[in-house]
Design brief:
Layout lengths: L3 H29 L3 H25 L6 H21 L1
Amino acid sequence: MRSRPARRLWLAVALVAGTAGLFWLTSWLLGKGNDGAGIANVLALPVAVLGSVAAFVALRSHPEADEAKLKARVSTLLDQVVTAEASA
């Protein structure tokens, strides 16, 4: 497993490369025409993928989440939903 500084360096390099790639793609698409909706659709996929990867990395970096606390919170939330639905 990589050390934390090596992982952070890798993530920083990936972030810079991804940002540069999106900048280049945006510039290239803007040079092709004025189809703003098309450009937004093309850029949505890499942004969504980068967000998903960031969420996955964040979840993997905190495996020490307390399962008992999570179960208690889920139970409380379920009770609140059942109560709200019953009153509606």
